[in-house]
DNA sequence: CGTAATTAAATTGTGCACAATTTATTTTTT
DNA sequence: AAAAAATAAATTGTGCACAATTTAATTACG
């Protein structure tokens, strides 16, 4: 009895979901690098700022929950954003364990300059608007699924 | 004259393609960590091995082309794979600049153990099979687009 | 033919990511 | 209330990722 001839099909790059996901994410971050550099942000700093622009002051923990990042990543990123003058870091009054992250005036004003950053993808990602919406919806759905898993497993 | 009320809509996390892409990719790599650790690979080492399993011996440059990685990333990864005994690194005979990467017997045998790694996503990503196929196709299409851009810009 | 331009790896330096541990604070349990 | 458990940041250590530079080899050009 010979084994199935395509037993190893699952290990081909083209049959994997993980690889285009991984590579595509990196490409997008790479494409964002230049416009972000112009306004003085790295990609990780940019998504932190986006959360603060949208939701306002919150703790490092809450920020990490929205961005899927832990303190090991966020602590140094937030210290740099503080040094750049875009955020304030201060201990919460009602719970000294928590760190409250809020925007400075410079941080608030940066929002205006960031408006054209997402356009960097135009002409790089060759998808129709509908395809883009579908892709975004599927990614968000997949992300939700992993969230449930995180909550179960810690 | 007041400005449009939703001028900043584009900067909301939920309206971005980049964020779910970035977060989803990280989650998948995180989910793969455990099964990969059992067979002695990191995620980056895993995708290198997948290319070698599928296409056989090739140069570091060719490997980088398939994986969207440059020598700055690949050189140390390949040295570790060599130290682990899964690949051989040797200068090409016809071009001493190129490094030829080939599988050892251990590297070939590892393929069998890697067969169940992709299953780690089952139950974590809550997408139907059709949705997964759509997602993969859109990601591959987007990735192709950025490839054209890379070739233009260097 | 010999020099200039190109190319492939390697190296250097910066910035994440994340697991694991530590420290400080708060909450829960006896 | 005191000890134990839980929680939030910070720290430590490893491994990418990538821009920029360097080194060595090859190709192109005058």
Explain what the structure shows.
Two copies of one chain form a homodimer. The model of chain A has no long low-confidence stretch (mean pLDDT 93). The longest helix of chain A has 25 residues. A three-stranded antiparallel β-sheet of chain A has the order 1-3-2. Chain A starts with 17 loop residues before the first helix and ends with a helix. Chain A is built from six helices and three strands; from the N terminus they run ααβααββαα. The interface between A and B is large, with 59 and 59 residues. Chain A binds a DNA duplex (30 and 30 nucleotides) through helix 1 and helix 4.
Q: What structural keywords apply?
A:
mainly alpha; three-stranded antiparallel β-sheet; 3 strands; 154 residues; DNA-binding; homodimer
Q: Sketch the topology of chain A as an H/E string, one letter per element.
A: HHEHHEEHH
Helix content of chain A: 55-70%
The two chains with the largest interface, and their residue counts, are: A-B, 59 and 59 residues
Quaternary status: homodimer
In whole angstroms, how far apart are the ends of chain A?
Answer: 45 Å
Number of strands of chain A: 3
Strand order of the largest sheet of chain A: 1-3-2
Low-pLDDT windows of residues of chain A:
none
Number of helices of chain A: 6
Q: What percent of residues of chain A are in strands?
A: 5-15%
Secondary-structure-derived class of chain A: mainly alpha
How would you state the average pLDDT of chain A, rounded?
93
Gross geometry of chain A = globular
